[in-house]
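Page 47, continued from p. 46.
Same chain as before, 342 aa.
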Amino acid sequence: MIVLGKDLVEQENVMNTLDYILRKNIISWNAIIVTGEKSAVETLKGLNKLEEKSSMGWQSLYNISERGFDMVAVKVRDFAKGVYGLTGTSLLPIVEAKDTPPENQGGSSGSSDGGGGGSSGGSSSQGSVSLSENDCIFTQSDGGSQGQSSQGSSEENKGQGPQLKLIPDTLVFFRGKKIARLNKDQTEGINWLSKKALFHSFTLENIGGYYFKDSKVSLSLKNQKIKIKSKFDSNPTMDVKIDANFTLVEVMRSDIPLIAGKHDHVERSELLSKKINDFIEKQVRDAFETGKEKDADVFNFVPYFFKFHNKQYNKYMSTGRKVTDLLKDIELKLDIKTDVEV
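Result:
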């Protein structure tokens, strides 16, 4: 794994460093690359301590999808292909590793920064990994009573080790220089169109209707199919079709009403589907439009026109327009169909 420190990312072209590493054959092109929320040294120290306390290797963190976002692994090869590609756009995830006190001095259920609560109970072996309420993965070291089932007890938190913060943002690079930071919703918008993001778990609010009203609803993705097709008639157009099946995981509401009628589940499913469709479309369009404002092709749409509509593409470019002009002219059409199991 290569970890790029915050100062390097903010102040320099990261390809100056990566080119040197790759020319010297210090590391493979298939190595994972991430950016640290802090310096590379602080991030690496935290990751080393995390790996010492846990059986979870560094790359395993990309198999974890929690609390409404995914971390999609990016290899050095993929990052470099974006840098030297047609649009020069590359994306990288962000991680933060930090230490936590070895013992909860105050007897509360979390560490001083709020990252230590909610560890999983039950019998656990050395190096178990849990998730807190603040998107942190932390380890349970040998100390402490790991076999206790009482959640959040001071005894259980004595064995708490380093934390790995899952940051749901994405950094956008142009030719190796950072130009933008996408927020959680924009990152999720990109993930809906990514084949590498295999799982989505998220929460919707204010569904409405008799059953849901203003409750929060947790849903998980069972499977999805994505079709992306380009057209280049008078204007460049991207047709994106998303077919997805979801499962209703939890309804967070104090008073769940009784349901009468055998067909009510159909109505609830349709209500959730409509909300999900609007939710996905908003996230995808927000990511696309934010990228366009920065001249960043975050979905890698432009190469579709170069590859599949080369004649029209060359004619378009012959008028003196640039790749960024083509990006701004792209019309995005979304066709989203979802089904929810309730």
